[in-house]
Amino acid sequence: MKNANLNLDLKSIIPKLKRGEGVALKHAVFIVIIIVLLVYVFVVFKINQFANAEPSDSAQTAALAAAQVPTIKSSAIQQIQSLEQSNTKAQSLFEQARNNPFQE
């Protein structure tokens, strides 16, 4: 290989840049469209990647541990039933609500 003469003189670089500037301006619309399409393809690829992502096993167990099923104590149920039976007005309201739950 020959040793290339690396001349970094500003006077020789300016005409080359002006020639490249003319080509870039001539095809500016095409270059912008290609850049926008590349960004669009990248965004679609990332959306697809995130849509198909599965949670890890540790994240699943943490979510299951955090989701606790609410329970009602049997003593609270018995107390509500005894209050219902002791008050006739409340008993009629419960009966009315059981027969037609959507009536106000």
Average pLDDT across residues? 81
**Biggest sheet features:** none
Q: How many separate helices?
A: 5
In the residues, how many domains can be counted? 2
Query: Gyration radius, to the nearest Å?
Result: 38 Å
What does this structure look like?
The radius of gyration is 38 Å and the shape is rod-shaped. The relative contact order is 0.04. It contains five helices and no strands. By secondary structure, it is mostly helical. The mean pLDDT is 81. The protein has two domains: 10-55; 72-104, no CATH class. It has helices at residues 10-26, 28-51, 57-66, 74-86, 88-99.
Topology:
Blueprint: H1 10-26, H2 28-51, H3 57-66, H4 74-86, H5 88-99
Helix pairs in contact: 4-5
Features:
mainly alpha, single chain, rod-shaped, 104 residues
Describe, in short, the structure shown.
With 104 residues, this protein is mostly helical. It is built from five helices and no strands. Helix 4 (74-86) packs across helix 5.
